[in-house]
Each structure stands twice: as C-alpha cells, then as structure tokens.
Design goal:
Length: 159
Amino acid sequence: MNRRTLLTTLGVLSVSGFAGCSQFRNDDAPAGSLQFENRDNFPHNIGISLIDIGAESETTADGYTVSGNVTVPPQQRTLTATSSMDPGETQTFENIFTESVYYLVEFTLDSTTPGENSRVPFNPSPSEREYYTVAGVVDSFGEISRVVRATDNPGMFEQ
C-alpha cells in the first residue's frame, strides 16, 4: 500500500481492519471492495464516510436513503477513510464492506462534500449471483463521482 495513504476510521474500526487491502490489480476487485481513482492531472484527497446502513434503499426527491433494521458488526457502522492520490493513481481496498446490506456512503474530494452526487447506496451482494464494488472517481476536470461496479469476483460473499 502507498505509504502516503492515510486511512482513518471512527469507532471500533482501526487501521488493522484494512489488513486485506491491496493495490489495484488488473483482475476484478472482489465484492465489497472500495476503490479510489484519480484521473485528474493534479493530486487529490479522496474520502468516504458511511452515512447509514439498512435492509433496502430507495430514491427520494432529496436523493437516496436506506431503511430497515439490520445487524452488522459495530465497525461496519463507523467507516471513514481518506487517501492522498497522485494523478492517474488507483487504489483498491478489499473486504471493506463485509455484510450483504445497503450502505449509504458519501464521498468527499479534498475534504469537501461536493453536493448531491456525492452519496450512493451500495450493497456488495444483494442477491445470490450479483456482486458489486464501490468507487470514488475524480475525472479530468477535478470533479468527483461515485460509481457502483459489478464484479465477477464474489470474494468473501462466495457461497
């Protein structure tokens, strides 16, 4: 992992919780992975915070929400991470989202929440044969977007 990478978490989750992290590889990242990509020509700090966890997600006039009670390990409720990224750099952190629930996550760019496009609901394994990763991507104009990607790699969700 890049030594400039700064991963911080709140609550019970500590840096040791990221023991499964690795740099980007050419094959599919496993379900539940977090990726940061900087496609800009300038360095940026990309961050993510967990807003809520639930059994289902929905789109409202105000954006996205998750609802329903779920049981997850305490560290899954307090996830926050930030990484310093060079131009053209991609980082992948595996096994971050370990439960098959909806996580409402919010991305930040250079410690600023860029608005309504910064939040997205994400479930790493919503059904038996679907698997997903989530990414914060800075484009060539210095704007951040959130991307939920399908993956063929079930990772820890393999049954």
